Amino acid sequence: LRWSEANQRLTKLAIEIIGREAQVADGDGAPAYWRYQQLRSRGNTIEAGTSEILRNIIAERVLGLPRSR
């Protein structure tokens, strides 16, 4: 959970630093790498259950909070 959200912030920052070159559809090197990583970081928060579902599991099972409705 922490990694997937931190990864989203990291890739967003990298894209902002690289600038317009990161938005070009072709090419390779650092801009292409970070563009791909940004797209993957979005998928990572969905793949093994959404971040919200994971938060609910932690709240219920680890913290013993009542089930959300």
Observed structural traits:
69 residues; mainly alpha; 68% helix; elongated
Brief description of this entry?
This protein has helices spanning 2-18, 30-47, 51-62. The protein has 69 residues and is mostly helical. The longest helix is centred in the middle third of the chain and has 18 residues, at 30-47.
Q: What would you note in describing this structure?
A:
The chain has 69 residues and is mainly alpha-helical. The chain has one domain. Helix content is 68%, strand content 0%. The chain has helices at residues 2-18, 30-47, 51-62. The longest helix is centred in the middle third of the chain and has 18 residues, at 30-47. The protein is elongated. It starts with a helix and ends in a 7-residue tail after the last helix. The mean pLDDT is 83.
Structural class: mainly alpha
Largest sheet: none
List how many beta strands DSSP finds.
0
Percent in helix: 55-70%
* Order of helix and strand elements from N to C terminus: HHH
- Name the overall outline: elongated
- How much of the sequence lies in strands comes to under 5%
Distance between the termini: 21 Å
Q: What's the total helix number?
A: 3
Topology summary:
Layout: H1 2-18, H2 30-47, H3 51-62
